[in-house]
Design goal:
Length: 128
Amino acid sequence: MQPPSVSYSAWWLVSAVVTVAFVAFFVPLMPDVRKKLRVCSGPVLMAMLFAASTVIHWTEARVALPMYCCMMLAAIISGVGRRPVIRQWSLAPENATSGDFHMSWGMRVQVVLAVVAMTLLMIWLCAG
C-alpha cells in the first residue's frame, strides 16, 4: 500500500494543526505560567531540531514535516484519557524525584503503543 501523496504546503498546514492540538491539550493542564511556557517550548524546540536537520541535510523537508507531525501526535495520544495524572504531575514541586511519580501499567502500555504506532505511520508516510 502506497502512502498518500501530500503536498509540501499541506504538510505545513497539518504541522500547524498538530501544533495547535498539542498546545491545546497540554497547556490547560499546567498550573502556572512557567510550566505553560515549558510546554509551549516543546513544539518550538522540535521544529528547530527538524529545521536544523534539514539545513544540515540529514533529512529532507518532505520527510521532516511528517516526522514532526507523528511525534507530536504520539505525545497527544499518550496523554488521552490521562489528564488527571498529567495534571497531578504538573503540580509536583520542582525538586520532586522520579520515584514520586506513579505510572500505571495501562498508561505505560498506552505510551508505548502510541509511540510505536506513530513511528510506523511516520515510516510509512516518509517511504513515498
